[in-house]
Amino acid sequence: MNEYGANMTYSVQEKDNKIFSHIRKMWLIKTPEEIVRQNYLLTLVNEYSYSLDQIDEELTIAGRGAGKARADFVIWKSVEDKQKSKAPLIIVECKSDNITISRKDYTQGENYSRITDAPFFLTHNSKETKYWRVKKDRMPGYIEEIEDIPKAGATEKQIDELLAHLKVFKENEFADLLHSCHNIIRNREKLDPVAAFDEIAKILFMKVYAERHLKADMKNNIFTFDYVEQAEAFNPEYLVDVFEKTKREFGKDKIFGIDEKINLRANTIKAIIEKLEKYNLSGTSTDIKGIAFEKFLGKTFRGEIG
Fold it and tell me: Which alpha helices (DSSP H) does the chain contain, by range?
């Protein structure tokens, strides 16, 4: 038994077209969404070690614009926090497997998190599980995808380490992001596709340079929008300096010319950094990167972009 009371392994119980809720202690109609919900509860308890006493199910969320909204699961950091009605740790939104989770569902999870002051939420069905951090110092609509949610009993240090972790690209994510970065450059800088690709490549190498140094200091990620903004207050040429360091890092590979510059305005570079900052480019598989570049370059040079 751990300190949070998860001393047994739970399993899904079904009978007569009903499924049992371990939290509500009652049999429920076995709808597609209920199947997903009760199966994910097992993940929260058996894999993340949360106790049933730390979780509430189908909890009504009261707040401006919430109406009669109910969160599938609300998880507190401790049983005591739940008993004292303190702000929860995580909001969980489940959808049935026949639904494609969309931006609307992410917004719903964010709204519930902001109303309850929960720092994390996740969206889940059997096809997709995504984990999110709500940044309270940003306007509604700004959410940050993270690698995972904290496990039961996680310390503040462990949570900080989790947030510092970069997530690898999955399947089409990298290809989609390359297109998004290309569009930023096209719309802001009016460069032709080849020139835009050259600038994206420079930023990607800056990203790899930053990741190499991040491994030694997880709290010193020089490739984030916030870090760059702060650095520019002391050094307006910060991004130019990072590119010069990147050129030296890859000097033996002779990728960049000695006098080569990054030909984008600082705000454009920062917009792309904001897109890339939470991803682990170095840790992403070669296959995913290769397929992404193949798709991106194919469309670029066939004239399908722009």
Answer: 32-42, 79-83, 103-116, 156-164, 173-189, 193-214, 225-234, 238-249, 266-276, 286-301
In the listed set 138, 164, 190, which residue is the last one of a domain according to the structure?
Answer: 164
Q: Is the torsion defined by CA of 178, 179, 181, 185 positive or negative?
A: positive
Residue type, 192: D
Per-residue pLDDT of the chain (306 residues; tens, 9 = 90+): 444 444 567 889 999 999 999 999 999 999 999 999 999 999 999 999 999 999 999 999 875 555 568 999 999 999 999 999 999 999 999 999 988 888 889 999 999 999 999 999 999 998 889 899 888 888 888 788 888 899 999 998 888 877 767 777 776 778 888 888 988 998 899 888 888 888 988 998 888 888 877 654 445 677 888 889 999 999 999 999 999 999 998 888 888 888 899 999 999 999 999 888 878 887 776 766 676 667 666 665 555 444
d(CA 93, CA 112): 9
22 with 152, same domain: the answer is yes
Residues β-bridged to residue 167: 279
Distances (CA, A) of 174 to 177, 249, 296: 5, 24, 10
Q: What is the DSSP letter of 150?
A: P
Q: Is the dihedral of CA 183, 184, 187, 192 positive or negative?
A: negative
Report residue 49 as tokens.
């070690």
Does this model's pTM top 0.70?
no
Query: How many separate domains does the chain show?
Result: 2
Cα maximum dimension of the chain? 74
Q: Are residues 112 and 180 in the same domain?
A: no
